């Protein structure tokens, strides 16, 4: 991870998302809102905003529709607001619930016709922070990875986020390996360090260095959102199962390609499928390549 971040150019103006439906979770603020705005300006026909608060989601919807460029190039755009119930397993913003959502969407997206230039795509927001994971320090792979990293007695504010982003990268890569010939693209991107309020809820001893880092090298929200637009709506099948940084396919953190890391990843894949199937039987009907 270099100190200076590569500039992310604007999405090519000839990119045309007419006729496409896009769902964005966390779309009323920050990167999510800015990505929604950019996608509408690229003429996305239907946009679904997944938000915690309907009131804030409706406010975001009105702000998006009031944008002068959206009104000019995409006046017929339809925006719907759906609430995320944080008590509901399906809606909790974490690794497992996003895995479940991805698995349940696969059959529906597989039956969706691809356009001449783009396949149906699921994009996870990962992070370069995966490189700071603590997995290599484990004396051995735990009998249950999910139980070990869900145990509040073993929680660490310093490593939980990097570890969760390592899980994301491993899951997306495993999915690409077990579903190689899919009509659907599933990828994982890092937007880089972006000037948002994402760190405001961190403990103060973490907020201080993170805020300093953000002040010195952060991308603007507009620039950061371009990475989401690229991964979800511009990149093609070559990114299936891949990690994207700076709008390029990139390597996962080193641990993922060690012997232990590969074993950890395959166990995580199996456990994730089992856990998701215990919540929704439809997961059991999915077919995978060994």
From TrEMBL:
It holds the Pfam family adh_short. Keywords: Oxidoreductase. It comes from the Eukaryota. InterPro entries: NAD(P)-bd_dom_sf, SDR_fam. The keyword Oxidoreductase applies. This is Uncharacterized protein. GO terms for molecular function: oxidoreductase activity.
